[in-house]
Amino acid sequence: xxxxxxxxxxxxxxxxxxxxxxxxxxxxxxxxxxxxxxxxxxxxxxxxxxxxxxxxxxxxxxxxxxxxxxxxxxxxxxxxxxxxxxxxxxxxxxxxxxxxxxxxxxxxxxxxxxxxxxxxxxxxxxxxxxxxxxxxxxxxxxxxxxxxxxxxxxxxxxxxxxxxxxxxxxxxxxxxxxxxxxxxxxxxxxxxxxxxxxxxxxxxxxxxxxxxxxxxxxxxxxxxxxxxxxxxxxxxxxxxxxxxxxxxxxxxxxxx
Length: 256
Prior knowledge:
The chain starts with a strand and ends with a strand. It is built from 9 helices and 14 strands. The chain is globular. The relative contact order is 0.16. Helices cover about 30% and strands about 25% of the residues.
């Protein structure tokens, strides 16, 4: 069974461990190398236990430690993302693995990347299968297309962005251009959009969810949690029918 272990999630850094007991992947490397190393050590793991790193896109909060980790672990992403990151950080050519969009394998994991809508070169979400389960990872996207929904439907576990509360964003201190960027189709999912997506996924059989990439300025963990649970309750979905957790910036959060 696949497990999601969030080592850190938010605008200051993102890194997620995917573990099925046989193979282990990191999605993104946006925390400091010392934090990643410390958190892996707490899980009785070393860098040598990680089979690959999947980069969603090139923004700093997702690639901060890509250079250090690439000395030990191969980095997988779209060629445009790899080129940008490799030019910024000294990633060895032999550690740069171009993703095949039709799908590829790392150990026992079958991985399907899919395009999301964000202001980056070629941003990805991922669906990961093994012989027992299916998980989906989708953050840093302004909306979820029908194509994305088709791919992530039926996932046992879903890590999904619940970035901001619409009202807090509009009333907050950010300049207008930044508010417009965040709320645009190339920005980030709101709590409300996240709740709607989770409702649809539950109807298709998903039961375990982790809310990710919460804004420190335009959201609160309690508000993100309440928005989804309240929306689901109004749809007649009992809280006993699903699990919902919040991925935080500092805490390690488990789901699976």
